[in-house]
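In the laboratory, one determines a bound structure by crystallizing the protein with its ligand and collecting diffraction data. In a computational setting the workflow is compressed into a single prediction: the sequence and the ligand go in, and a structural description comes out. We illustrate the idea with zinc ion.
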Amino acid sequence: KRSKDQMIIDAGQKHFGAVVCKSCGMIYTAASPEDEAQHIQHHERFLEGLRYVGWKKERVVAEFWDGKIVLILPDDPKYAVKKAEDVREIVDNELGFKQVTLNCPAKTKMYLFVSNEKMIVGCLVAESIKQAFRVLSEPGAAQSPGQDALQHQRAWRCSAKPEPAICGVSRVWVFSLMRRKGIARRMVDVVRSTFMYGCYLSTDEIAFSDPTPDGKLFATKYCQT
Ligand code: ACO
Ligand code: ZN
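The predicted complex, in structure-token form:
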């Protein structure tokens, strides 16, 4: 499952001297050579994969004081699509998805949040869908994020009745050191205004697929407001 990160966090609680790398965000035990080796490997791969060089014809769909959102479509030049795939691989790895292929690559839109420091700090994969199954909220689940049992649970109860939807968000990810700055919120806002030409999608028309606990907290909050 979310093995790597989780294991390291657990290890950090058992041993003193757990540190967070200020560049790549990995938590590891500096005293453990094994951990340190793993960190060096992660560090380089991560920063290289998320480095954004940019290209002339990039599609900037939003600009902010702290960065911009770039949209990559399946028919874009190879280098752009390649970058999108590299980022998706890093994100999948963090989310614990193993070699998941996209349902339909031709219908996939990839939104990248690029910081002023030219690092990709947010990523959202959106696909066209026709229907979705609503996640049924367990009593009190979303309101009490402190409950550990719920935090580790991944299989949410879903309704059996399909409801019409237009846009499926199969992945939304924000770099660990940049969370709670409204990056995911701004990416979803931009998806709503750009996913379908000439339409502003309502929150009912967007579905988050198989959300993680973080994803569920975010989606619940986002859809209420
Ligand atoms: N706990 C509680 N509330 C949260 C959390 C959280 N972890 N994350 C977001 N929220 C709520 C808050 O109310 C927040 O507003 P506030 O900060 O003013 O209180 C609101 O959602 C908006 O949050 P953002 O700042 O826009 O969210 P962020 O940029 O931090 O990204 C995300 C959220 C993408 C879930 C991030 O935590 C992340 O990348 N997590 C790891 C990857 C992951 O689990 N992604 C979801 C997978 S599910 C899927 O892809 C469909
Ligand atoms: Zn690092």
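Confidence is low (pLDDT under 50) at residues 139-154. Keep in mind that any predicted model is a hypothesis to be tested, not a measurement.
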